[in-house]
């Protein structure tokens, strides 16, 4: 409580304290838009994806299940694990995470981009829209791989 002597000298003490409490209540909420977006991004990845094709921009090559003679799929699990299957047999299992990559570390106002990191490897740009998954590493002369959600 505020001593009565203080409120007589400063009649706005209650107002200042009320504003302070309001500010702290609003500023200390646990909900952060980035956390919601990150959670949605993880959910959009989860599930099984069938390999459609891989393009190599550097060599201008394209690989498909037909050209390679096998089927591949990947499964993003809820426990931050991704499993790779070739002809329905598990071939690899790795941890994965999503993280924000700062587009320009020299610019304090630079945007950040959400990237996919598999097995602590190269950061990959990714997109999940209309039951399609695109994993893009072309910025480091890597492949661009296309998947379709298995139903």
From TrEMBL:
Transmembrane segment boundaries: 12-29
Top-rank lineage group of the source organism: Bacteria
Alphabetic keyword roster: Membrane, Transmembrane, Transmembrane helix
Protein name (database record): Lipocalin-like protein
């Amino acid at each position: 409580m505020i001593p009565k002597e203080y409120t007589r000298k400063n009649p706005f003490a209650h107002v200042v304290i009320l504003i302070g409490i309001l500010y702290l209540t609003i500023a200390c909420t646990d909900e952060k838009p980035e956390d919601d977006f990150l959670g949605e991004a993880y959910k959009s990845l989860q599930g099984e994806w069938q390999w459609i094709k891989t393009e190599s921009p550097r060599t201008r090559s394209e690989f498909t299940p037909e050209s390679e003679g096998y089927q591949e799929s990947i499964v993003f699990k809820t426990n931050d694990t991704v499993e790779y299957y070739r002809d329905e047999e598990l071939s690899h299992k790795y941890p994965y995470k999503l993280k924000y990559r700062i587009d320009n570390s020299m610019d304090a106002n630079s945007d950040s981009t959400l990237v996919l990191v598999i097995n602590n490897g190269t950061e990959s740009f990714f997109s999940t829209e209309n039951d399609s998954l695109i994993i893009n590493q072309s910025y480091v002369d890597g492949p661009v791989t296309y998947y379709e959600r298995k139903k």
